[in-house]
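ugh finaly. both done.
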Amino acid sequence: MESVDVRVLRAARDWCGNGDALLLATVVKTWGSSPRPVGSMMALREDGRCVGSVSGGCIEDDLIYRHTRLHGGAGIPVAAPQLVRYGVNADEAHRFGLPCGGTLELLLEFRPGFAALDALVRQLESGRLVQRTVDCVTGAVTLEPAQAPEALRFDGATLSSTLGPQFRMLLIGAGALAEYVATMALFNDFAVTVCDPRDEYLSAWSVPGVQITTEMPDDAVRALRADSRTCIVALSHDPKLDDLALLEALHSPAFYVGAIGSRRNTDSRRQRLIEHFNETEQSLERLHAPVGLYIGSKTPAEIAVSVMAEILAVKNGVALPREASVAAAKSQQGDAA
């Protein structure tokens, strides 16, 4: 799989290269509840075909109607960027299927230039992080290298968004839990790599679309070149494998580092890493262990839900209460495991 942004922009680039008229819609503001977050994009071709999404469907239908059907198939106009707002009142919110009180604002770029789209797609495909800036008066686009992801900025005159490759996940261990976590990560738009040097585990792997490596875990972490869009999760239950990965991951820019295990095993791991591998209480503060949020999960599928929920919360900048952690919840219940 690849990121939704890349799919939208590649479609826009290809249509533009074929001489098709199109518009590029970007969610630039939201108020209240909204079906898609700021930064979501959709490319709409003159024949009504679209890639990406800015809502649950009704706003897409309205854009298709307004820009491809209303004028008898006249096609996408040549025009300066346009700002449109949906859900201003309750009737309109209901008409477009927006949640109660939801309002969103879109910037429509009509017939964006091929050269800028092609340059952007090529940089994204090579794994670069790019800041795309749009002059909302003239439609002119500039591209600059970005060092770190930033929130979309829009002041009415300029739109600036940071675009980049997919978020990545490295899983250590190819057991049943890793299969469920990988499946959930794939449909949340992560590029997933599974590392396991044990043939007996990899021979049973059944999730397509995942990159497999048989390197030792520390080598796999180094080869991944983790960045701020990367998470690393140790799920093998084998300290020889999990510890190797964690020793590398904890000192990487990865936004999330986690490890499976009971509270007892987690305490043993912490002691082992401090006593024998020169880790400190401070360096281990980054480690999410036992991994996941406490939801009373028992099966591999349920545990995977808790793991993915915690990863997404950290990715999205949500501050989780201590009580949501597995360790705190089990401690409160008096569970020794």
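ok and the 2nd:
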Amino acid sequence: MVVGAGVFGAAAALELRRRGYEVTLVDRGGPPHPEASSTDVSKVVRMDYGADVFYHELAEAALAGWDEWNRAEPRPLYHETGFLVLASEPMRAGSFEAESFRTLRDRGYEPDRLDAGALGSRFPAWNADRYPDGYVSRRGGWAESGAVVSRLVSRGEEEGVRPVEGTFAALREEGSRIAGVRLADGRELRADRVVVAAGAWTPVLLPWLRPLLRSVAQPVVHLAPEAPERLRPPGFLPFAADISGSGWYGFPALPDGQLKIGHHGMGKEAHPDERGGVGGAHLERLRDFLSDALPALVDAPVAATRTCMYCDAVDGDLLIGRDPLRDGLVVAGGGSGHGFKFAPLLGPLVADALEGRENRWSNRLGWRASGPVRTEAARHTIPNNEPPRKEEAG
């Protein structure tokens, strides 16, 4: 039984079915659920992780999986447009941008280095004076996140995964063993193994994980620019704009004309059912960023806002492993705002954990009750203490 039909759970259910298990996928309704972290329209796919070669290699392996998925699907859901990384000062050793650039080159890639002149020529929407350095990683882009989750769920059902709609209430225990789940409507569902992949709800449903995991709210804004055709590849790419120093990242305009900009920062700890909306102070910060970096967008109307919930691990690493104190329980989460790009690997990683198989990633991503306090390399670490504002929910 897999609890949660986001990208972790949907991928796990499909892989476990392909390994011969009878699989039930429990979700509280309509995957991709509109409040899930892995829904929405887009997620960045990148290998850029500063000096962290582990995640560079994990992303490299995932990209091979995205290529395979694209070949197998009627239309591609991963778009390899390239990924634009901008630095607000000349790249220096130790910075996220410089170390990402160096790692890519050390690994045999050839990112295109950009100075202000090249930025202004190739990507005219940007204020070239603001970003004197940067590069384009050609092996990267974005994925249609909600469509990916929908496809994983539907493919699972086509191959025999049994869907059950319901809200998780508790694990079902028989002695020291987990033997299924109890739903909020009183139904009890039996299973030999339970995988909890509930995204930001994971530390709520499994509170003993809270020393390692927490639920964090992050703001996302969709803009409706007047001339969206100028804000699409090749002249406008998914971007990280001095991301470890500012938190800003975003995407090209979609066919509907909307353009999404998010903030990869510390966020605000919140219960995922009480996440609130995107507050006015964040919209003011966004306008300041646009005025400085993307002046053509400074007056673009806000089409929608969304509060995206991270299942944040204190060490920034995914958590995929068997709970050693609860026989029969596997946890798959800790996406920490950067887990979606690994979608093609998540199913095999969860299935290996359930079967007790070691793999090249399990040493770092496997079970732990706590970890060193650190963040993923692109994360902006200055806290944003603005409380969620329910009246401004978009």
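summary for the 2nd one i guess: Confidence is low (pLDDT under 50) at residues 385-394.
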